Structure formats: C-alpha cells, structure tokens
User: Fold Thioesterase from Amaricoccus solimangrovi.
Amino acid sequence: MRAMTIGRPTLTTRVESWECDFNDHWNARFYARSFQQAAERVATLDGRDNPGLGLLGARTIRFHRELLAGTGVEVRSARVSGGEYGGAVLHLLGDARGLAATALDLPGTGGAALPRASAREARLAFPRAGAPADAEENWAGARIAETGPVRPAELDHTGAPLLEEILRRVALGLHALLDGLGFTRDFTAEHGIGRMAVETRIRPLAAGPLRPGALLRVRSRLARTGPRSFATRHRLETDTGAALARVGHTLVAVDLATRRAVAPPGFLPRPEAGEAALR
Assistant:
C-alpha cells in the first residue's frame, strides 16, 4: 500500500517561502507544527475539547525527504494496530510525490476514531534508537543558550508553548552547541558539508500554563558521534530551572553538492556513553 493512502486526512497545508531555512528547505519546526495540528484534529474527532499540547506524551518524527516552497502538503493519520507500538497514532506527511516525513505519537490520544494501520505499514515511523524513557539525564557540563522571553503568540489556547516554538528554541541551542564544536557556517562554506536531522524525539514536560514574559533557556549536549550519524540532547527550561520539554535529535552530515550523507566531521567529540534513548 502506498504510504499516502493510509489512514484519513487530518491536515491540508503548504510550504510557505518564509518558512524555509538557510538551505531553502521547509524548516523542521513546521513539519512539527503540521503533525501537532493533525494530532489536535485526531484528539477532537469524538467531539471532545481540544487539549492542545496536553494530548502528547512523546512524539518521534522521522524525516524522509525535503520539501520546497510552494509545495502542497497533506497529513494523514491512523492508529497502529498490534506490535510494540500498538495503540499509537501514526501521522504521514507528504505531497504529490509521496511521503516526506512521519510521526508516531504516544499515548495515541483520540486514536480510537481513526482507521487502523498495521505495524508493517507503520514501520517507517518507528524510532530507530529506542522509545523515549522516563528517567532524567545528567546535564552537568551542557552548553546553555538563553533564548529570550515568551510572547503570547508563542503559546497555544491552553497556555502551553506551541510545539514549533519548542523546536525553534531547541534549534537555537543546537546551533550554538555545534558552532562551539566547530561545525560552523564557515566550515560548511569551505568544505560543502552541512547537517540534517533524520529523527527528532520530543517529550513535553510542562505541567501547566506558561506565563508570557517567562525567560527560557536550552541546555544542549552531544550524546553520541558514530561513523554515520551523531546525536544531541536538549532540555528546554525556564530561568528558574523548571523543565518544559526534552528533545533528542539524530543528525547526519550531508555533502551539499550530492545531497548524500557522509561521515560526521572528525573534530566532533566521541562521548564515552553510547547512544541512549531520549529521556
């Protein structure tokens, strides 16, 4: 079965030029926004009120293809039937050419109203490095990025931070972390090597509404450097240390001429700890 025929439509949108990054591709946070908007539609299919970010325990996003400005986008959603992720909600995001990204939501809020997808049909969305765990990580020595105050437009109707705003701020922390390690724009310009996320895992942690004007920061660290990819971990928190979200990225280095993955730069450290699940 073709991926973009699975489930039912839950969002129609398009790629706007001002939503594209410095590589001229749709920024990852707008994939995340689309998945969240589709999830909120799923959560209300039975007539219940929209819970906003509160519907989400954990989400794994996998990026399969880049999208460019002007592309029409559809999200389709289904409930996974059977297997390790039975009951999770599967989202498939694509265009006329086919699948571009997937998301897997736990605990699967509203999924009972969706068509079913087999574990085989959903396998492209399954985490490659294990599902998010509950234990906290050690953030000692993490790089801290001060990301500024919260504005009212950055909150959803429940007072929780918009999911795309979580990822925007985490992206600032990621950029600062990699700049500090030498993976800079100057390095990219000189060597033609950029980077791209292939998997993002998100666990919202906020227990209540966020106050406009609150100051937020991101703690970031390099978790793993391997022969084909590298992983980072991030914690979004208030300036008093209250955790709002934990995010993990798995990234690849990309030859910008061929658009193919290459080995990560040799100057990236190789932490002693192996790849750990997002916690």
User: Anything to note?
Assistant: The chain has a mean pLDDT of 92. The helical segments are 28-43, 119-122, 163-181, 185-191. Residues 1-126 form a domain with the Thiol Ester Dehydrase; Chain A fold (CATH 3.10.129.10). The chain has two domains: 1-126, 132-279.
